[in-house]
User: Fold this.
Amino acid sequence: MGDIQNTDNIESNIDNNNNNNVSLESSSSSQNNNTNTTTTTTTTSVDNLQVGVLSISDQSTPTIETPNQQQQQQQDDNNRGVSNETIKASLDGLKHNSLKTTFPNSTNHQYIDVNTQWITNKLKERESEFTEKRGMSIFLGTWNVNGKKPSESLDPWLKDPSMSLQPDIYAIGFQELDLTAEALLLGDTTRSLPWEQHILNTLQGDYVKLLSKQLVGILLCVYVKKEHKPHIANVQSDIAAVGIMGMMGNKGGVAIRFSFYNTTICILNSHLNAHMDNVLRRNQDMKDISKNIKFINESSTDHSTINIFDHDQLFWIGDLNYRIPLPDNEVKEKIKKKDFYNLFLVDQLNQQMKAGAVFEGFQEPPISFAPTYKYDAGTEEYDSSEKKRTPAWCDRILWKTHKKAENVGILSYKRAELISSDHRPVSASFVIKIKVVIPDSKNRIYQEIVKELDKKENDSMPDANISTNMVDFETIKFMQPISKQLIFENIGQVIARFQFIPKLDETILCKPWLKISPLAGMMIPKEKVTIDLTIYVDNLTSGLFNINNNSTNSTNESMDDILILHLENGKDYFISISGKFQKTCFGNTLDNLVRYPHPIRNNLPIPPEQKKLSIPKELWRIIDYIYYNGLKEEGLFIKSGVTKEMELIRDCLDTAEPFSSISFSIHSMAETLIRFLESLVEPVIPFNMYQQALDASSSPLSCKTLVSHLPSVNYNVFFYLISFLIETLSNQKENDLKPDQLAIIFSTVLLRPSPQSQLSQFPPDATTVKKKADLILHFLISKDLIN
Assistant:
């Protein structure tokens, strides 16, 4: 790629009060009492790729001249803040979608009771000796009610006359419970109450509600027979909204998990993206929901979490929105003939599961009923509107059994003929083999394990063997975990207790980008233990490998470490860790990136005394692409991108490959912009100005003063982004974006507390979210701040 600093037709200068110009090819030494700049559009060639840029001309604070901006804003609009309704709607999404490290703080040396840990593990191994399996039934139902209130008897759906016994568990999911604007903005959950009461009236007095959880229009309710309630523990719930920062509150997932006797069950109700051609979007929704829903591992001592897959039985229900890609007439003809088999062969979900693209390892009962969507509400006729949506099995029930658990038995899979909605409700019943503890047997096994432990105890020297003392992780990529395994075997005659210990004069066991599991343990003779080593570089640790030291022009840390595995009353084993981090523009700093006029991968930055770019070229390329290809796209910066596509985009940014060499949606590029800003080691508004920014947020003038004191590169980036966002909002008739939404999304990544701060340890509260968003909103709607 040709150096941007040598491209003559790129001129982007910010003229400050000291008349120091900061351009795409200028030094960053200028001061920042900046005012008054306008912005124009130019085009340049970067390595033979035509790139349109928003360039900053010599007047002072950047903006983009558009017809929409020429209309004078009302003074009260200039001073207004982000609405409380929008703030409230964003809180759940912000909780789940912020970039954070995967690893708990387990690198510090700590005491671990290996005896208790070993006994617990042995009990788990011998669980079959002190438990008996009993068949319990579970009923799962899903219905997209299209905003309708309860008006029909639920008996045809919830009560199956063919079932001789009542279900032990009911799990009932709804979608589109409330389609009102208030629900979407306020997260209003009052519509759930009539439905929950309607369910209880249908189930009568034999059941009690275990828990219900709602995300806007998505509701999940779990009921159990009264007799089982004392045998249920560890009840938890979580939600995950999809879209960037979880801003698409009407789509997402709700999950409830619990221990039923000695069996763990997780039930997830979701509503995925609609429309025939959004297959990849639905696939990504499923993966995002799976990743973002977490529960506290109550059996651990390190406050770790478990995910939906860490359960004996996982059930996924909901309006998954997969369609049948055939002509409407052909589908309806096959429905009349009840030729469901041939329809199912081309069903999108069936095809995607077969290809391993989504719901890997899940199963679905055979479908023997007609598609459940879309009907004319209140009738038995499929969609007769102008859109004539093709019938589809949008409403599905899937399950996944853990490899260590016994698979379920299918009792039924059917639809019910309730007609108030444009969907038909679906239900499935299963038999689950529940593990029930036999107390006397468990106590006997426990005593046997303790006696075995006592018998092995003596004063002899332990001995062990490790499979390798050199672990090479090879290439490590940003935010892509890689794991390797060691086998540690007790080859002695006595119990061997082991624990990782810090190196001399250190308090941590390993580098912060490395995770060890387990940290300690115990082995009886001939027993083996698998030790997992995982490297994960995120924005908290990437600076060590991405940023070059000015004096040595090399990074401050190599991807090497030495681990010490200590055998109690025995010797120490030294394990060498090595790998090579692939440098990237993500997880970097603005100051470092503007020293790379060439691709960052496999290159060194220019010396500090040479002229730097005024903004990172990667930011320039991303914004340029969106500017020319996506400003009118509906849901821009709201709908999330596809992970694999974003990884390809990142590679193009790091290598200067043209975007035309890969295939991706505009939403993947838009989310790449968000994630790039979010990954910065220090945000655009630096950590040391965080509190000042919050304090200034109520006054547009104070916000302008604060931004004028940003470091020069940060200042350039801030106004470059603001100019672009203003241009984006000038197309809001097409993209349906609102200033409040953009203010919340971009304030989350432009303004963050330091990761060392206590503030970063907790989800943001409504007051903080509003202050941050208000600061950005002032610049988006107030002409006074950008003139």
Residues 1-74, 98-102 have pLDDT under 50 and may be disordered.
